[in-house]
Amino acid sequence: MDPYRTARLNQSLREVLAELLQAEVKDPRVGFVTINKVELNKDHSVAKVFWSVLGEEEERKTSFCGLKKAAGFLQSRATRTLGLRQAPQLRFEFDATVERGLELDGVLAELAQQGEFRSPRDKLRRLCLDELLPPPDLLEGLARAERVWIVPHVNPDPDAIGSALALAEALEAAGKEATVVAYPDPPIGVVDLPGFEAVVTSDEAEALFAEDEPDTLVIVDCHRLDRTGPLEGLLGRFARRWCIDHHLVSQRKAPEPGWVDERACSSCTLVHQVIGALRDEDGDPVELTVEMATNLYAGLLNDTGGFRFENTVPFTFELARRLAEKGVDTAQVAATTLHRNRPEGVAMLQRVLGTLSYHARGRVAVLYATQAMLTETGGVMADTEGFVNIAMSVDGVRLAAFLKQKQDDGLWRVSLRARDGGDVQQVAARFGGGGHRQAAGCDLEGSIDEVVALLAAELEAALP
Ligand SMILES: [Mn+2]
Questions:
Q1: Which of 404, 161, 171 is nearest to 266 (CA)?
Q2: Nearest 5°: phi and psi at 385?
Q3: Residue 303 Cα, ligand 1 centroid: separation in angstroms?
Q4: 343-461 maps to which CATH number?
Q5: 211 CA distance to ligand 1 centroid (A)?
Q6: 258 with 271: CB under 8 angstroms?
Q7: How far is CA 45 from the centre of its chain?
Q8: Which of 178, 247, 291, 399 has a CB 3.0–4.6 Å from the CB of 194, allowing a cystine?
């Protein structure tokens, strides 16, 4: 037989049988049967009819009985409808592959409804603030604590200090003793935050540790002790340690126990959720004061670059609204933490911009700050916070690196930035660092020329 004719007949038979089952066979047992495929043999004497039905073994048996009973009727009506010379014998075969396919379709549809196939970005956009839930072990750890030290990362920014100050105040309200321990030479943007005057500096930490006998440590805006710089050794003596952080965890080193959630744009977002779960000694919720809200808002504002960075999503504004509602002077926080420079800082900016070099036809920018510049200007490295964003704001620049010379000659702290789908996390990871796709960091060793050339090449290779 002509194979094309057979194929056409198979198709026609399938359609006719399906229609007959639907319209003519009154037996309810076959009501949900699907005819998936028909295969005529060579001489068209036999037609295999592949069918399936939704349901369990039971439905399948009942349907099969119904089909067998209707076989004679189906055979004669189909033969007549299609004008066939001989009536093919119908053999019903259950089609398990289709059943599995249908099951899979169902599962896929359900997963899609649950948002399983949404992009991470889309999921983040739909996330509500109160879906960020602090882990119970962290809350238990804080509830059991009596004397808590809260420590931000070295070179703390408003998010790190804001998180620490807000958490300290909330823990005090919950009946604990809480001390924020940070570093000398804080960046100018954090010194006016409420409660900053009570911060103990790292050079006093050793003595205070002996006197204070703190029982619990919380590191904020970082998740490993080595990010606390000179305090690492001392903090290692705490038996109970927790972290609250929103930075990506690198594959190499496990974080301290606690809460690392990179969906949050700032650590202050997470601290806000922790404060919301704290109870005072009477079991009443700890109330968010305007001072706590101001500190949290400072972190939120700065880590989103004034709500301009990609990490700004709807729940960012939800938190901003809740904090502003408490009476935060938002313009004042912006003026004292974000749009503020020391004269020494502006002198540093003049020098650092002088080092700006472009690579890869203007798509990569590199700039640096040296210890000599600090001596000349009287500035501190913290004054250079945000300089890399100036390089990133240049038309055409997609990846940028900002190098800060460390005390020891030939050692550099590197901040990397990316936009338009670029990924600097992989570059940082290659040199043992970490961070996010858009912002990452690592340490490098070498002369400034070597290090700039190396980074320019690595970033060019990482261009999207
Ligand atoms: Mn942060």
A1: 161
A2: -50, 125
A3: 6
A4: 3.10.310.30
A5: 31
A6: no
A7: 62
A8: 291
Sign of CA dihedral 107, 108, 114, 116: positive
Report how far residue 399's alpha carbon sits from residue 55's, in angstroms, rounded to the nearest whole number: 55
Quick one: CA dihedral 448, 188, 291, 305, positive or negative? Answer: negative
Cα 248 to averaged position of ligand 1 atoms, centre (Å): 11
Cα 56 from Cα 127, distance rounded (Å): 38
Taking only the tens place, the pLDDT of each residue in 379-419 is: 998 889 889 999 999 999 999 999 999 987 799 999 999 99
What CATH number is given for 129-338 in this structure? 3.90.1640.10
At residue 357, the 3 state secondary structure works out as strand
Q: What is the 160 CA–ligand 1 centroid distance (Å)? A: 6
Compute the average pLDDT of residues 205-211: 95
Domains of the chain by residue range:
3-113, 129-338, 343-461
Question: For residue 127, how far is its CA from the centre of ligand 1 (angstroms)?
Answer: 19
Question: Phi/psi at 338 (nearest 5 deg)?
Answer: -105, -50
Q: Tell me if 134 sits within 8 A of 270, measured CB to CB.
A: yes
Provide the pairing of β-strand 434-435 with 33-40: unpaired
Digit-coded pLDDT (tens) for 48-80: 999 988 777 888 888 888 898 889 999 999 998
Q: What is the spatial distance between Cα 364 and Cα 395, in angstroms, rounded to a whole number?
A: 11
> Which residues sit with Cβ closer than 5 angstroms to ligand 1, an ion?
159, 221, 267, 303
